[in-house]
Amino acid sequence: MRYDYSGVSDPESFVSVPGGTYPCRIAEVRPGRARDGSEQWSFRLEVLSGDYAGRTAAWDSLTWSERGVVRVKLVLAVFGFDVDGELDIQPQDLEQVSVIAQIQEEAWEDPNTGRRLERMRVPYEGYTALDLLPARTAVEAGVDRMPASRDPGAHGGGSFDDTPF
After folding, report:
1. What pLDDT score was predicted for residue 58?
2. pLDDT tens-digit map of 49-80
3. CA angle 30–84–96, rounded 5-degree value
4. 153: closest CA among 88, 97, 98, 91?
5. What is the mean pLDDT of the segment spanning 83-108?
6. 69/119 Cα distance (integer angstroms)
7. Is the dihedral of CA 158, 30, 33, 106 positive or negative?
8. Which of 33, 34, 52, 86 makes an SS bond possible with 17, Cβ 3.0 to 4.6 Å?
């Protein structure tokens, strides 16, 4: 077969794990601004265990816009923060929080370059608290330890206790 590949562009891929559900921790948080000027925290989810341990599963963001705060509240509650009233939280408070994340592939064509871009994303309600996951499902997901209960007065820094399933 003979084919001229000079007109075929390579996709720009930021995919390092296949789509699925993974135990993850927030490895880093980058504060910034969304397009509308709202405060936005982007964070990198790193796979905790299994075949892809240590790899970046996806990047996600929390955006404090009028529309975005509904998801912010939902996500922070799953992350273990008390969102029933006023909450004083900083970006670093999210670091090391561990959750189960549903990861999906997303692809689109960049209108400026015409290149196909691929990345992984977390859907709107794509998080489950690690300590709410049934033990059998957790073992299948590759989680071998449950997180210790977080101090209600503390922010972030979820840790693992020594109690295996």
Report:
1. 95
2. 999 999 999 999 999 999 999 999 999 999 99
3. 35
4. 88
5. 94
6. 24
7. negative
8. 52
